Amino acid sequence: MMEIEFIRRWDSEKTEYSNWGGFVQKEIETKLQEKFNLDTGYFLKVPSMPRVKETSSLIEKAFHRGKDYENPYDDITDKVGVRFVVLLSTDIQKINRVVEDSEYWQWSRDRDFEKEREDKPELFDYQSVHYIVTSTPEAALANGTFSAHLPCEVQIRTLMQHAYSELTHDAIYKPKTAATPIAKRYCARAMALIETADECFLGVMKQLEVVNKPIVDAMKMLEQKYKDIVGSEPDCSKFNSFILDEFVDKINDALDGRLDDFLKERPFVIANIKKRAVDDFIYRQPVVLFIYLLAYLEPRQTKIRWPLTEAEIQPILDDLGIASEF
Amino acid sequence: MIFENLTIRRLIIHEVFKRDHQKNTVQPIYGDQLIALGDDALAALRTRVIHTMGRASKNVEMEIGNTDPGGLFSLSKELMSLDDNEFILRSRNAANQLSSAQTRRDTPGGILVVFSGVVDYPEKNVIGFIKAEPHNGFTRVNQDDHLSLAFIEDLILTPQAKLYKIGVFLEMDPDLATNENPSNGYRAFIYDENMSPKNPDNAAQYFYEGFLGCAFPESSARLTREFHHLTKNFIYELDIPEEEKIGLHQSLYSYLKLDQGQTVHVGTYANTYLRDDAMRDAYEAFMRQKEFPQNAIAKDLTQVELHLQQRKISFRRGVKLTAPADRFANLIEIEQIDGVQGDGGEGEVPNWTRITVKDMIASQE
């Protein structure tokens, strides 16, 4: 295939590839939300955008980099690509699952850093997971803006791997001469540190999970209770853990039962929550139930340790008839 | 807890005045319509009422003395069930009664707020009377983009609780009321910073007695004794070093005997003498659980006087120390020390007590 032919074909198919890349990106994000209940805006540390290769760099790769492709157009599988950047190596596995479970494409693993580590344990080099996903006829039919059998490269890496890759991308890999032994040595050291840091990060997360367990459990209980008793879908914003964290010493096993008793004797609390939930954020949070109970049981500490303004706790104290000038 | 779930439904104001130079009452100016407050304003008013009537506030439960048909209690019962128009007209009567109750010429005028609503669960009717005395302050004005101050002479119902008095009648169970005891099934609460049972001829009496027709309850002495007894038990059960408990017992004596306050109030004792909010909350919860009132009660020491004369400390093996309570802190020093282990130096080091009595022995048996 000649360059001119290549360019002509690429020009005519570029849009399809771009559509396909967009589809892959959207599908993975949707499934991440559905399967793992993730806020992708938070989970993905760099916005994932489908990127179609520039014609010039494609031509360079096909004909001028000594790759010696037999069929350059089809052999180059990263004509469009989507990159997902996450915080921790364990997060990568979530995306792996989504990629491997999809009905819209066939996949193959192009690069797998975990396997590379096993094969060359002494080497600290570029790490990332690469998939090639190929559109199935069903997907093409259902969507209609791209055809079947189009490849798309999916890269998945951690934020630190991403940083490493950004640093080394142009300088080291593309022009063969630029990589001096000293630079390479630095890179290997950086990658070794990154691997170590990732391990430390995981240790931190594990530790946080242990510490957060009471908060997470309490939140689950409160969310369920809010649904059952208030009867509407609560917001579950970070505000909840912010409040629970402030009063974490007040969380205990008796909370569930005490809350039931407390609310049973005071149906007006639920009525007030319902009424104010319409235009007041706090009353849409499950943690509001906890605040009521705490204000009733230990009004001083609740008011004095209350991390927001007085205006926000005042209506709750007033509902409970607590004179709050301590 | 009585003042939970307060909703203020109706609200009207009248203005009463100080007597004229001949000591005659001056006719009040009557409000002629119910006042519709916005949500924020209504919430603020509710906060004022809760501040004086809610749990841990310093209101005092009173006895309803005057149940005459022309008195304020009877009027309150009536107001609970009247429709809006009649409520507006009949509430004027309260303004008249306040005017005539202000017998002294130096009693200032003010705004009388009359409100009705419900409180507690299941809901109970409540009628409240607030006498708010105007004071002054400033507000900022923004005129043509220029900030300036405006002086306001008649601010009322600011968070300054000193500047209002409030009395409420609560309908607990109207079926209990009889011809002989029309106030059965009703309770009255009053908040007034000037109020004092010891000094009946003071500046507050016109309000609670003359106007509201209430009297200090006879249960004050019993409640004061219970306060002493329960607080002692609370200190006893605390998991703190004995030395610290000595200080707390001393504080209980000081609060009842030396403190000039005219009322006994769980929250005030907690604030003044307990070491942190956790202990204060625990104390209030303890007293609540024992069903001791969280509002203020008139301090009446007649039934505890005897208990307050002597401080006693008992030791586990029969030693007893007794000293006059009023001089205990000055005469006795107590300190916990490490004892000497038993035979052969085995076991834990026991806690011993070193007592210094700053006096000579007078006699012994």
What report would you give on this structure?
The complex is a heterodimer of chains A (326) and B (365). Chain A is of the alpha+beta class. Chain A has helices spanning 3-36, 40-43, 55-63, 72-75, 89-101, 113-119, 137-143, 159-173, 181-230, 238-246, 255-265, 267-277, 287-297, 299-305, 310-319; strands spanning 51-52, 80-86, 105-111, 129-135, 151-158. Chain A folds into two domains: 3-179, Beta Polymerase, domain 2 (2-Layer Sandwich), CATH 3.30.460.10; 213-319, no CATH class. In chain A, 62% of the residues lie in helices and 10% in strands. In chain A, strands 1-2-5-4-3 form a five-stranded mixed sheet. In chain A, helix 1 packs across helix 5 (89-101), helix 8 runs antiparallel to helix 9 (181-230) and helix 10 (238-246) runs parallel beside helix 13. In chain A, 30% of the residues are buried. With 365 residues, chain B is α+β, with helices and mostly antiparallel strands. Chain B folds into three domains: 7-215, no CATH class; 220-298, no CATH class; 310-357, no CATH class. Chain B has ten helices and 15 strands. In chain B, strands 1-3-4-7-8-2-9 form a seven-stranded antiparallel sheet, sandwiched between helices. The chains are: A alpha+beta (326), B alpha+beta (365). The interface between A and B is medium-sized, with 22 and 28 residues.
